[in-house]
Amino acid sequence: MSEVPACELTVRVTPKSSQNKMLIQSDGKVRVWVNAPPVDGAANGAVQKLISKVVGVSKSQVELVKGEQGRDKTFKISGLVLGEVMARIPTEDQ
């Protein structure tokens, strides 16, 4: 039985944004903007939902593993390797 691929993705989150979007900046860092406020985990849930939509996996395959209270968060994404995830995220110049 082969192991299911998984990777960790670190993102910088800006809550209470005017739009929900995710992109790779020119410095290679992943930024996420969400409408949700940073209250009672609302922003974390919104980021989880946006990541799953952008990279094309179910929400249950995206798990917050680090940074619950901070702006820098690490998510574990099951079913994909990091190269596949990064290839699906738009870049700043697109």
Describe this structure in words.
This protein has helices spanning 42-55, 82-88, and strands at 6-14, 21-24, 30-33, 62-66, 72-78. A 5-stranded mixed β-sheet has the order 2-3-1-5-4. The chain has one domain (6-88): 2-Layer Sandwich (Conserved Hypothetical Protein Mth637, Chain: A). A hairpin with a 5-residue loop joins strand 4 (62-66) and strand 5 (72-78). The protein has 94 residues and is of the alpha+beta class. The chain has 2 helices and 5 strands.
What's a concise summary of this model?
The protein is an alpha+beta fold. It has 2 helices and 5 strands, in the order E-E-E-H-E-E-H.
Chart the SSEs and their pairings.
Elements: E1 6-14, E2 21-24, E3 30-33, H1 42-55, E4 62-66, E5 72-78, H2 82-88
Parallel strand pairs: 1-3
Antiparallel strand pairs: 1-5, 2-3, 4-5
Main attributes?
94 residues; alpha+beta; Conserved Hypothetical Protein Mth637, Chain: A; five-stranded mixed sheet; 2 helices; 22% helix
Summarize the main sheet: 5 strands, mixed
Q: Ranges with pLDDT <50 over ≥5 residues?
A: none
What would CATH call the architecture?
Answer: 2-Layer Sandwich
Global Rg: 13 Å
Distance between the termini: 39 Å
Global morphology: globular
Structural class: alpha+beta
Order of helices and strands: EEEHEEH
CATH topology: Conserved Hypothetical Protein Mth637, Chain: A
Q: Can you tell me the number of structural domains? A: 1
Strand order, main sheet: write it out: 2-3-1-5-4
